[in-house]
Design brief:
The complex is a heterodimer of chains A (199) and B (80). Chain A is α+β, with helices and mostly antiparallel strands and 199 residues long. Chain A has five helices and five strands; from the N terminus they run αααββββαβα. In chain A, strand 3 and strand 4 form a beta hairpin. Chain B has a five-stranded mixed sheet. In chain B, strand 3 and strand 4 form a beta hairpin. The chains are: A alpha+beta (199), B alpha+beta (80). Chains A and B meet through helix 2, strand 4 and helix 4 of A and strand 1, strand 3, strand 4, strand 5 and strand 6 of B.
Chain lengths: 199, 80
């Protein structure tokens, strides 16, 4: 007798639970079904939020291997690379090499800004949406090109007077920052950051 | 010696690696070198002399210093 009562009570509980929670469970199941196909349909070209960071790390590693750890430290601290021009006595003018911005040339003795040199490295084989070179690669490419073929790069670049794209005051402050950095000796032996940038 | 190429949105990519003193590996390096130049890329070899770092622009594999650690291929520069 008591067994029958327990069974009846269980049936009643199940029925009540179905009435109470059934609609919510059904709704949740429908939501899950809608969500799952959407995830499967995720477009393959959806940007990977970490890819840019990984690319930048790879580029900085290459920059460090090519220019040395101290030059990499200077690049991270200052945000640009530096080298001297080969013309004149070899130390009469220099370049500040900004990633994805014009190269700024300046007179080493006076700090006077000379020109902006606008240049880029478009990859015709890159798939659509591949973006541009990571910042450190762009800066290193400019450094390599200036070192290996300064005349060729300067001839290829669009040259403008200072102030066209770069804020002259900002560039002058960067020359001072570079001078302070090199005078500390932090990057002296590496990456061509081996001499006074400005008086 | 490593041959690497800068790629947009990715960073550098290793194309080939080998010892140019070994004939078979040198042939592989030369083939990879020519392929990149045929695609119009620009080749730079970082060098170091007495702590001073520079770079060479090379158009032929025999211009590459035998002790070079890497050749970096870059898309050619254009006025921006």
């Amino acid at each position: 007798m008591s067994g029958v009562a327990i069974a009846a009570l269980a049936i009643v509980c199940v029925a009540l639970a179905a009435v109470a929670y059934g609609p919510e469970l059904a709704h949740a199941r429908r939501r899950r079904r809608r969500r799952e196909p959407a995830q499967r349909r995720r477009p393959p070209d959806l940007p990977d939020p970490g890819e840019e960071l990984r690319a930048e790390r790879r580029a900085e590693r290459l920059l460090g291997e090519v220019l040395g750890a101290e030059a990499l430290e200077a690049y991270r601290a200052l945000g640009f690379l530096h080298c001297f021009g080969a013309g004149g006595d070899g130390r009469s003018y220099g370049y500040l090499i900004y990633p994805h911005k014009p190269i700024a040339s300046f007179d080493v003795a006076t700090g006077e800004l000379l020109n902006e040199h606008c240049v880029s490295f478009p990859d015709r084989e890159a798939p659509a949406g591949a973006g541009r070179l990571p910042d450190a690669d762009d800066a290193l490419a400019k450094w390599l090109a200036l070192q290996a073929d300064e005349r060729g790069l300067v001839n290829e670049a669009n040259m403008h007077l200072p102030g066209r794209q770069l804020d002259p005051d900002h560039v002058r402050r960067d020359i001072v920052r570079l001078s302070e950095w090199t005078s500390r000796g932090a990057a002296a032996p590496e990456g061509n950051l081996d001499g006074p940038a400005a008086a | 010696m490593k041959l690497v190429r800068m790629r947009p949105g990715h960073g550098d990519e290793l194309l080939a690696e080998g010892d140019p003193e070994l004939a078979e590996e040198e042939a592989r390096l030369i083939e990879a070198f020519r392929r990149q130049l045929d695609r119009g890329l620009w080749a730079a070899v970082p060098t170091q002399t007495a702590g001073h770092r520079e770079a060479l622009h090379v158009r032929h594999f025999d211009e590459v210093p035998r002790d070079a650690e890497r050749i970096i291929f870059i898309p050619p520069a254009v006025g921006g």
